[in-house]
Amino acid sequence: MNDNKRKYRELDDATKLKISQALKGRSKATTHKENISNGMREYWKTVPNKPKDGNNN
Q1: Nearest C-alpha neighbor of 6 from the set 22, 53, 15
Q2: DSSP state of 25
Q3: 25-41, pLDDT tens digit by residue?
Q4: Which CA distances in Å does 57 have to 30, 32, 41, 48, 51?
Q5: What is the pTM of this model?
Q6: Phi then psi for 36, rounded to 5 degrees?
């Protein structure tokens, strides 16, 4: 049975290239861009900064 679902997270380079070419030139509405921006801001708030050095914990 071929269900065409992703089984693994990693994709081969040929598949990545095909996806990239298929999505080139598509435009997004202004509200869509704003929603993406807001979502990324919220996401990056949860990712900690890398420590400057390993001595001060």
Answers
A1: 15
A2: T
A3: 999 999 999 999 999 99
A4: 43, 40, 26, 14, 8
A5: 0.46
A6: -65, -45
Q: Among all chains, which residue has been given the structure tokens 């996401």?
A: 43
Q: In angstroms, rounded to a whole number, what is the distance separating the alpha carbons of residues 31 and 41?
A: 15
The two structure tokens encoding residue 56 = 């001060």
Going 36 to 37 to 39 to 40, the CA torsion angle's sign is: positive
Report pLDDT digits (tens) over 1-57. Answer: 667 766 766 788 999 999 999 989 999 999 999 999 999 999 998 888 878 876 655
- Please give the single-letter amino acid code of residue 49: N
CA distance 50 to 28: 33
